[in-house]
Amino acid sequence: MTVKSSSMGYPRIGENREWKKLLEHFWGGDLSEETFHREAKQLRLSYLRKQQEKGIDLIPVGDFSLYDHVLDTAVMFGIVPTRFDYDGGRVSLHTYFDIARGTKGASASEMTKWYNTNYHYIVPELNDCKPLLVQNRPLEFYREAKQELGIEGKPVLLGPISFVLLSKGYEPEQTREVIHKFLPLYEQVFKELENEGVRWIQIDEPALVTTVSDEVRSLYKEVYEVLHQSAPNLHVLLQTYFESVTHYDDVIQLPVQGIGFDFVHDRGENLKAIKEKGFPLDKVLAAGVVDGRNVWRSNLDQKIDVLSELTNEIELDRLIVQPSSSLLHVPVTLKNENKIPDVLLNALSFADEKLQEVVLLAMGVKEGKEAIRQEISSSVYAVQQLNQSSYRNDDVAQESSQSSEDIKRKAPFHVRYELQKKSLEIPFLPTTTIGSFPQTKEVRKQRLQWRKNEISDKAYRSYIEKEIEKWIRIQEEIGLDVLVHGEFERTDMVEFFGEKLNGFQFTKFGWVQSYGSRCVKPPLIYGEVSFEKPMTVRETVYAQSLTNKRVKGMLTGPITIVNWSFVRDDRTKAETANQIAVALRAEVEALEQNRIRIIQMDEPALREGLPLKKELQQQYLDQAVYAFKLATSSVENETQIHTHMCYSEFEEIIESIKALDADVISIETSRSHGELIKAFEDSTYEQGIGLGVYDIHSPRVPNQTEMIRSIDRALQVLPENLFWINPDCGLKTRRPAETIEALKVMVSAAKQTRKRFLVHE
What we know:
Number of helices: 27
Strand content: 5-15%
Shape: globular
Number of strands: 23
Low-confidence stretches: none
CATH architecture of the largest domain: Alpha-Beta Barrel
Distance between the termini: 80 Å
Largest sheet: 8 strands, parallel
Mean pLDDT: 93
């Protein structure tokens, strides 16, 4: 045996988003279930074949998903919420999608961020669960790969401890009990894989890089000892990623045959631990040295040096070279990107290119640098050329990245509140939306024709203005209090701004999965960021001219732009965020100068970027607050600053939310069934706030009673004079009819609530 190459997971979406299109055709009723399964299998096998052709030795199987890998793990154990029609046995395809998307009579399961990424997973509900192994997915996919392609695959499975910690429906003191409910089922999976002759299984335990309790620490040894005894001949590769392992000494003593570490995002801690404490002689080390979360080409010379340091501690036949994480988080391939400047294109690496880097590095470690000297020289030259280019050497923009300006508003909130109440004339319990309205096929068609120069700028602007006017009228008819222009000119809330700021580049096919079939195309922040000209003023001012009601200006905040982009890796994210904040401040001031007095700067990804180590979190939050206030604090007291955030564990960051000093914050809450409200029971929030009263990620329209219940629950802990009523998030992905119906119900619920308060008064 000698050094091997490995992949931890491959993008699901396909080079041209074939996977997304397949899902949406099935959901739309255009495909039978049989055809859907057949075409999904063809996609799945094509991904395996590609990795085989690249020369990857250990190819993951079972990482492919029809929606989400955490949901896959739940349904293989028969974990289906009681509100769905399920009576045991293998979970049907329709039930699987119902859990993720909801039905007319049952709300979808909660969806939240996968650690500190922009990927969303479906949160398993373990309330009084009695799990059973109803489908051995790893075994099925192992057999498929072997029978169809002759691939001796490496089954991938989310580990029992991380799975339970990512779930809900139990109290912390029940963690051990719940894990032990699943342990016999994992034993069964392991035994069946061993009996099949499987050599390696990849068990993902990302919880090992987080700050876990002492009880959870002890559970790892207990659980993996049981699993080892159940299948002693099955080689277990315990995989971690996204950070350094928190308790290195504990991890290396676990009874597994291999351990995977991230050597890109570990801040040097994993390498330091190995050099100082050694690595067990009876284990294989899977070294994640190629960045699985960013798109920059590896400097192969530097990567070989890291691997060489590892081989001082570990023999070659106990080393596996791989990406730092699953490649789920990067686009598929560069081969179709023909509009990116060469100096940038040559410095990029997507999933397929990263697999090639892995194979080259494995060869370089095994045979020496001379074996890949040409490839090393090419990678070093490409990185140097970009770093030395004018894109990364703008002195004026560089100064803004080191900004240390005053970021206080002109007056405290209670003073601003009174001034805004008089000048903006906003009613009690005001209703609004988060920003976007449905992007229909016709909207997308017009935008595409405009981008292809098939219609003129004038014709496209005319079309957008007609859409704005149509939805202003719809909002007025529905009875919303604060309106939005609808964002019909925007493809994506980050891409739109990136296209108009200096320092950004966009790809043609650089899509990645965000949730379900929802794919995003993150921009590349490759250079110095600066403001060029107003970006949103024309559409916002036009919308305001059509109505006597207030229209919000809609912007995306600096932290979200950073977290939802592929950011240059030669400087800190905080420095890049400050550059973006200074550019956005110019846009805020332009809106204000044009009499737009409500400006929303969304930060849905603020919580997402929180470091996985608790000791690093406050620094990140302080930097995030600084960037937000740098962008927003220059406005007059009468100008109302809003922000929006997506669902997450906000109780952990409530003090930082307060520190943003936004006049109004809206938070996505409906999929957590109001659990977020508990955060405000323990911590008083005294500024404007809207907790989403219905879930926009599901086509289901809740009834008025449900929405009133959500409003009432919030008003138990929040002051009614500061409360806003709004949906969970933007409505871009919804259809017009369901959007209008849901908003009518929401406004009706608000009116009923107002009446009750007036009667009470």
